[in-house]
């Protein structure tokens, strides 16, 4: 008696496995001081023992707040968009007025 596996059930199973592994690695790599609700070791047990339900509980209740803001953004902003302080923004050479003045000076001196 052969058991037949349908393609949709394989895809759903792989998606659940990927979701579970993502959450498990997320729990493991999150610093213990940033975990919410219960200690980190207990979160690992919840995710491992409750499989996809534990992973979902981790995302909703245990994940650090700043990780949630990185995905959803602060209130009033588009999803996935975070504002960084102005001093944090990297500037390219073409945005630096001093670099452009030096470049212009060098180009004039070469002529």
UniProtKB/TrEMBL annotation:
Comp. bias intervals (Basic and acidic residues): 86-111
Localization, UniProt: Cell membrane
Keywords: Cell membrane, Membrane, Transmembrane, Transmembrane helix
Domain Cardiolipin synthase N-terminal: 18-63
Region (Disordered): 73-111
InterPro entries named in the record: CLS_N
Topological type in the membrane: Multi-pass membrane protein
Protein name per the record: Cardiolipin synthase N-terminal domain-containing protein
Lineage per the UniProt record: Bacteria, Bacillati, Actinomycetota, Actinomycetes, Streptosporangiales
